[in-house]
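Risk mitigation, structural track. In case the binding assays with adenosine monophosphate fail to produce interpretable data, a predicted complex structure has been prepared as a fallback.
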Amino acid sequence: MKRITVFCGSSSGHDDYFCAQAEAFGHTLAVRNIGIVYGGARIGMMGALANGALAAGGEVIGVIPGFLRAKEIAHEGLRELVVVDTMHERKVKMHELSDGVVALPGGFGTMDEFFEMLTWGQLGLHAKPIGLYNISGFYDNLIEFSRTMVDQGFLNHCNRQMILDACSAEELLDKMERYTPPAIEKWVTRSELS
Ligand code: AMP
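Fallback model:
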């Protein structure tokens, strides 16, 4: 992977450990020579991630809609800040610029972005690895819920395996490097569920 898109919170969370790990993740990516595409803010988890990568000499590209530029307090120290018109354009641009996706802890925005990438993958619109960095078990319930989706017949287990999760950054990136996308179509039939 040359570059990955990282989705994460515009907030910092209550525990300082989250931002410390976001910063460390930025550092790890820079050391592995993987560029970052992210939401372009200098606040919260987003800012910590960018600062970690920049401090280690990594490539960091921000993508932010004009109307959010002030609200999310754009990071002015980036190599490139791409300003787009809409939230949708932001996701498309981030997707175009990268060859993998990772979600760190965050809120609704992070989830929206993460699930949009999963659904695009499910529909065969891309074949990129999608990682969930499960810092301090933050995503345990989401991982469990995705199993419920399979158990209850709303998600094909092959598509569930598109979610690559790990509690360690190195392990997550290794999984992503080895990823092969599911060969099946989205539409779930009764025989596929058994
Ligand atoms: P959050 O996880 O809610 O802190 O948001 C993380 C990032 O997602 C921020 O840059 C938000 O601007 C962005 N975001 C929030 N809502 C959406 C949305 N509906 N679609 C795409 N991005 C969003």
